[in-house]
Every structure is written in C-alpha cells, then in structure tokens.
Task: structure prediction
Amino acid sequence: MEHDSRRITLITRSRSAPQRPWLAAPDAPRRLIFVGSFGVIPYALARGVEDLGKDIEAVIIDNAANAAEYLHLLSRLPASYAGDVVLIQDDSAFVSATGRGGDRVLYALGPDDVEFYLEAKMLIAPAMPIASAMLTSSAQTVAA
Result:
C-alpha cells in the first residue's frame, strides 16, 4: 500500500444532508475519509491523532449530530488535536477552531459562510471556478 501524505479530513453525514461536490478523488488536495456514523468520530480522532500520529486537519459533521452531541465531542477532544471541528445543521454551522494560545474558539456560520469554508479548505468543488467568475464579471461590466 502506498503512503498518502495528504492532510486528512474526517466527514460524517446523515442521509438527509445535502449532496455536496466533495473533492474525494485520489489526486484531490485533501484526503477525505467518510466515517459511517457520528459515534465513531471520537475513536477515529483518538486512534488517528494519538495512536498513529496522523495529520487530521478537520472533522466535518454534516447534519449527523445535534448541538448537545457536538458540545460533548468538543469536551472530549484529544489534547493533541488542534484541527477544526465543524457542525453543519441545514443552512448554518458552527466551527470550533484553535485560537491563539491553544484555546478553542467557536464561530457561527451562515449559509454562504458554510459554502465558503468548505471551498476555502478545498473540501468541495467551487460553485463557479474563479476564472469563469472573472470572465462573467468582466462581460457584465463591458455590457453595462
């Protein structure tokens, strides 16, 4: 088996989560690992980060947990895990990230922020490639 040195993002999603254009191909910038259920996340983090020393960059929970379960997970994160933990619920989200000094901070995201976050982290394909967006914008400016 070949060694994959890409940073890892763990994703768990419910059946009701919206379909997203996940960048999961072997040549994608991140290694996405889809976890079967939310309950596996704490064990995957503990095993991956502490036991195996894997570089887990983020955990995405896409409509697969409620706020209480999310907070419970945050309270049990391995001390050595410094990545993001994102809870997406319908069209909003919360991101727990490591701030200055190593403490965790919590951010609330709106619908556009969720898409921006996933695109900026190179987890999903952009809604419109940048070059196309620039051409469209230029064409509209010339037409006006």
Q: What stands out?
A: The first helix runs from residue 41 to 51. The beta strands are 8-13, 31-34, 56-62, 84-89, 92-98, 104-109. The chain has one domain: 8-143.
